[in-house]
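Repro case for the chain-ordering regression, as requested:
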Amino acid sequence: MGEVIVITSGKGGVGKTTATANIGTALAALGHKVVMVDTDIGLRNLDVVLGLENRIVYDIVDVTHGNCRLKQALIKDKRFEGLHLLPAAQTKDKTAVNPEQMRELCSELAKQFDYVIIDCPAGIEQGFKNAIAGAEKAIVVTTPEVSAVRDADRIIGLLESAELRDPKLIVNRIRPLMVKKGDMMSMDDIIDILAVNVLGIVPEDEMIVVTTNKGEPAVLDNYSRAGQAYRNMARRITGEEIPLMDLEADTGFMNKLKKLIGFK
Amino acid sequence: MLEFLLRVFGKNSSSSKNVAKERLRLVLVHDRADVSPQLLEELKEDLIKVISNYMEIDESALEVNLDTSDNMVALVANIPVIRMKRTAKRSEKIG
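-- result from build under test --
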């Protein structure tokens, strides 16, 4: 039986979909069978982040309504053996699927895959309830901003009342120089406030824009720091002990120079 | 080095990160306090237990609320005392 993990955040725009695409791809690169499920019905995005938008025939609503078999709706990502996407529907709304259907779908997927990664929509309404219904573990994404941390706190509370205990945190878009100057909350500040365990920290990385433009997850790019962060997270999910990234290492002038001339 | 300079120029204490943390702390006290009346009820029961060791109180008129006005959160309790006890009886340890 595979593991069903939901990636959520409460606030929109903090990087749930990017995290899903990268963690899913990195797990597949490690040789696991992975399916990523987009539950943001009406606002699907995971397909474009992965560059699979032109290959969608059926979607999650077709599957839950019995318009097609599960296998027909799964899109195989050709970059990795064992990497699949179940896309959201774009023309329906969030009530097209209910939590009971999601539970069934997730347990069916868990039979066929090692990891079922669910991309949750923003908000705490029906879409959120659907996305967490079939999950047994949760990852909460936040950024070092008051609004995002506040929403993460609310989500952690809701996850706990839904019996999803011990969620893991991703702190996304950290800018080490600003943290050093005292103008941005550090990972430790955020952990202090939210009192949860960390899955990983992701430095702000312009490569994310570039890789998303191309529809290729950053984990495929060996030079991307964010990609490295997500590769580490995938290995932690499989149970490996990987130390957190040293973000400070990026801030010094010498280090930048070294990176520029290809020493790192 | 950078930290030293910041300290010299007295920037650290008013850094925007600390402002963010303080604002978050306050907003979360509000948010978390909003969540459960059940928690408040449990607190009320515990309060009664403790205070009853020292004085007799009118439990039916006891009021416990979180007052979240201005930028402070205060626990406000209104506890009518009926009679003081001569000696404190610590029959059981609370908590």
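Ordering looks correct now. Chain A touches chain B at residues 145-146, 149-150, 153-154, 157, 179-186, 189, 193 (CB under 8 Å).
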